[in-house]
Amino acid sequence: MKYRRSGRLVDMTHYLMGNPHRQVPLTYFSERYQSAKSSISEDLTIVKEMFEAKKIGTLETAAGATGGVIFIPAVDTDQAKETLSKLCERLEDPERVLPGGYLYMMDIIGDPALIHVLGRIFASHYRDVQVDAVMTMATKGIPLAYSVAGQLNVPVSIVRHEHRITEGSIVSINYVSGSKKRIQTMSLARRSLKPQSNVLIIDDFMKAGGTIRGMMDLVKEFQSNVAGIGVLTEAVHEEESLVEDYVSLTKLSQVDEKGKNIKVEIGNIF
Amino acid sequence: MKYRRSGRLVDMTHYLMGNPHRQVPLTYFSERYQSAKSSISEDLTIVKEMFEAKKIGTLETAAGATGGVIFIPAVDTDQAKETLSKLCERLEDPERVLPGGYLYMMDIIGDPALIHVLGRIFASHYRDVQVDAVMTMATKGIPLAYSVAGQLNVPVSIVRHEHRITEGSIVSINYVSGSKKRIQTMSLARRSLKPQSNVLIIDDFMKAGGTIRGMMDLVKEFQSNVAGIGVLTEAVHEEESLVEDYVSLTKLSQVDEKGKNIKVEIGNIF
Predict the structure, then answer these.
(1) What topology is assigned to A5-73 in CATH?
(2) Which of A50, A106, A150 sits opposite B116 (nearest CB)?
(3) Which CATH architecture has domain A77-266?
């Protein structure tokens, strides 16, 4: 079946969006639509122009014999800042304050559409960095980690506190949680991360950074390299920071449990 | 700025894909592109025809004063079966057999692109069912649950074995795990699920169904209703089934720990 340009543009956009950071040869499209490569090239120019005009991302031309294009998702910085500003406002709701000065955040983490947008901000931030895998800590880091990984087209490695019989051999390390000064264990299935990977660590919350520091040590145990660290929310703390290079979307600068006064601002990503 | 039809089609497709199961008024597009509603209607007809031709989904016309369209993601059944067949083959790899007859599945669960496709199969299956929330059990159900929820445009409620100080007040129930016959506890943050919700339960693995049964009881504790149950893999078992109405993507019919002989077939979804 042959398709007109208008139809091709719809299907191409759908296909590229579903396959970010993946090289698609021109022949894939020319066979899919029974169209000449020259027509496909023109189609892709239109897609590229619109993706760039609407700040959806870019279409990079892949070098090599097969040629082709790679869709690199990006974000409109102004729109991303607006999203984060609204998120900060939502986080400042006094109803969120829990005993111990913790914040209830499960509604944020439980919102797939929002998590998709937040993941896109990280995917855009790290779009030019070589990332082979995303690592996160169960449970609450998982949704954001999957969103980032999906948009970077890499697998996810889930680190856990408990051992599970269904994971086969595991690598465990001990670490000291920064705020509680308690020795804890974290582990990752041996098969869950290839050696010599460039690992992007994504988590939902960071205070002094003990958990992140532990994941950094775990990355080393897999002869791998930390490509970046991104957190949804960083919180002010009195302890010494255990992590220096990181990117945060939001920053919790104050939680007053008594007065239920919360201050949240945009993190260091912008 | 005005946009030509070709550009509008690219951006519309991107927008609709990012906003499944959500009503988008025609005025949204006519303002976004500074175009007449009649042109937007024609654009949407092209999008709809292509979505249906390529089995991406449908565009439903929304009734009411504002009008508009709703993108309902679907799957091509043949392609979905092919995806599941390949998954079954991957699962039959003898290297997966772990002590106790468990299967290593973290590579499947850790693949966001695959999980997205599997989530789409469930989202398509339940597209005409009223679903207000997806519920899952930490940790391994989470990725699939988010994929389904994102494509149905509903929030996720994560049930956990442990209590967490960062979740506020929780509702806990005891349940008997079907295979181990052990009493366990599961809990969900009170704020994490609105009463009178229609809940789609999604999990990675089901044997006799004790965990799913527990989640069904938990749904009741929230004065809510089970809208459906979907599992990535169901396994044969000798115990009595605790769950009757469910949909599975794959079925593990045999794990022979000694011979490392695994048999996996497509589940009851097709």
Answers:
(1) Arc Repressor Mutant, subunit A (1.10.10)
(2) A150
(3) 3-Layer(aba) Sandwich (3.40)
